[in-house]
Amino acid sequence: MTTRLTIRLDFDAGRRLGAGKVALLESIDKTGSISAAGRAHGMSYRRAWLLVDDLNRLFASPLVAAHHGGVNGGGAALTHEGRRIVALYRDAEAKMRSAAGTEIDSIERGLASPARARTTAAPEGSALPNLKVTSSSHRGRTA
After folding, report:
1. What is the CATH number of domain 8-109?
2. Please, is 17 exposed, middle or buried when counting C-beta atoms within 10 Å of its C-beta (0-12, 13-18, 19+)?
3. With bands split at pLDDT 50, 70 and 90, how would you rate the model's confidence at 39?
4. H-run or E-run covering 30
5. Average pLDDT of the residues of the chain
6. What is the three-state SS of 44-105?
């Protein structure tokens, strides 16, 4: 089983960097476009642009440089700082996965089969599946 480990860095003042923002940066680097990167992640251009703006404000130096449209259209590229932050994030992720490999393997061994997990899922809107309470004062009632 391949369990994906993701990390989210929660900085002060509610500022965050996590897997989704890093994946968006990687897509911008690959496609050269905020719009195309957003589409690759199922989001609108506006949502992608707002995330890029947030990322550029999060760090002292911008992570993405956007080029406005013209005859050849616009585009976007990661800055040196953007590539550095992505690499640091991915390195931290790999180190965490390696350091916690034994624990993750043990957790995986305790997982129910996917079929069992589907049949015991809680009803929509419920935090827990319906459970029978077996104490003498509540016998037969559902929780």
Report:
1. 1.10.10.10
2. buried
3. very high
4. helix 19-31
5. 85
6. CHHHHHHHHHHHHHHCCCCCEEEECCCCCCCEEEECHHHHHHHHHHHHHHHHHHHHCHHHHH
Q: Can you read off the two tokens belonging to residue 136?
A: 């003498």
Whole-number Å distance between alpha carbons of 47 and 116: 37
**pLDDT(124) > 90:** no
Domain boundaries, the chain: 8-109
Q: For 52-111, write each residue's pLDDT tens digit.
A: 999 999 999 999 999 887 666 679 999 999 999 999 999 999 999 999 999 999 999 999
Pairwise CA distance, residues 54 & 32, whole Å: 18
CA 120 from centroid of its chain's CA atoms: 26
Residue 141 has pLDDT above 80, yes or no: no
The CA-based angle 53-56-59, given to 5 degrees, is: 145
Distance CA 60, CA 127 (A): 41
- Could you give the CA distance from residue 52 to residue 23 in angstroms, rounded to a whole number? 12
Residues 6+ away with beta carbon under 8 Å from 17: 8, 9, 11, 55, 58, 85, 89
User: Residue 108 has what pLDDT?
Assistant: 93
